[in-house]
Design the sequence.
DNA sequence: ATCAACCGGAATGTCGTCGTCCACTTGTGG
DNA sequence: CCACAAGTGGACGACGACATTCCGGTTGAT
């Protein structure tokens, strides 16, 4: 691979991440190309179609999640604070938009992404461990679960443009409110809870 | 106005409300027409452009909000439960999408909508009263305010298609979590709160 | 019975985006 | 320094999704 080609590839990946974060998976290819300072032709030679590009983004994304979780877990004084910090970080719309993009991807795209799946699973397991610890510590309600944390993280995972302005401006406020709602102290007195029969069971996004 | 024309008008209004609720303000006019069992021509004769249609929807919407609030307030045993019930009702994405549609409207559209503004103000005042009462009762944290309640209500006010599936399926779970986070018991121990210096001050949607 | 009001939806025009293609430029090995 | 394979950019044709117009046919009211 020629040196300039390599450089362009890097620029494209970077630009794609940025553009998709702010406009979603459907962002015009030309926008991405321009942001990378490159012609559409170049973009299409590297990634034959949009899905190829998104898939490449996915690798990055899931790795960064796993890393962030580990970091939060080891730095925080206890499981619950670690969880809180992580959710606040990961729930930022800019990051979430990429998750949304990945979720829109047709399944075929993932056929040969074994590593992706592996990383994802490991990450989920660690998250689950953290949740259990927080609950064991008596800091977190027992009637919310790992799935809820994941949901929370992905709550605002859509194009920032389609988020109500209140949220786009201060996502952390709402995430914080929900985290407060997950604290042990906030457990319902009677039938006043988050309104469900336990866990959210749908498939998650990330 | 001829009887059949009148009938069609009603059908259009009803269909527009339904379609906009599920597809946002930008929903194809033809879709609305078809849902109403009417040709696009008819739709355009009644409402010269999309904004006219949205404005008409707005009247309905704000009235229904005001009514619902009154209902909740008088039926609930106390201010906090009334608030909770109202938010759960009003925060449903189907309803919220119309609010989003209204918010997208260019300002000129509202020039001659004095009644709209009046109803809106009255509604906001009552909501504020309810919040104060809930706080006075010691059921609601003092560091969240009316604006937050409104934000909450409009949190999921966007086209359901662009909501993460988790949310679209169970909006009440997340609303419930946030409401729990607003309860007095969930107040932060120290710097652990919803992450802000008080109220959200941006302009609200409804 | 008459006719103005009303209707449906085909037709037209616009817009934004995709993905291809090729004439031109540039890095690199000899 | 050269020759040429590798790489580049962006004009271009095709497309699909929509808004809006227009008019021949239909229907309610008198």
Sequence:
């Amino acid at each position: 691979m020629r040196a300039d080609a390599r450089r362009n590839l890097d620029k494209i990946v970077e630009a794609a991440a940025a553009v998709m974060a702010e406009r979603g998976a459907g962002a015009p290819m030309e926008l991405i190309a321009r942001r990378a300072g490159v012609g559409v032709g170049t973009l299409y030679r590297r990634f034959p179609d949009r899905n190829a590009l998104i898939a490449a983004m996915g690798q990055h994304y899931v790795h960064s999640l796993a890393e962030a979780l580990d970091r939060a877990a080891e730095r925080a004084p206890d499981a619950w604070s670690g969880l809180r910090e992580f959710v606040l970080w990961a729930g930022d719309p800019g990051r979430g938009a990429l998750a949304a993009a990945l979720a829109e991807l047709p399944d075929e795209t993932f056929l040969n992404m074994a590593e992706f799946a592996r990383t994802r699973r490991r990450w989920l397991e660690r998250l689950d461990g953290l949740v259990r610890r927080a609950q064991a510590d008596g800091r977190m309600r027992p009637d919310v679960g790992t799935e809820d944390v994941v949901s929370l993280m992905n709550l605002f995972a859509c194009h920032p443009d389609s988020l109500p302005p209140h949220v786009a401006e201060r996502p952390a406020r709402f995430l914080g409110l929900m985290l407060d709602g997950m604290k042990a102290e906030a457990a319902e007195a009677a039938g006043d809870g988050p309104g469900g029969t336990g866990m959210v069971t749908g498939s998650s996004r990330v």
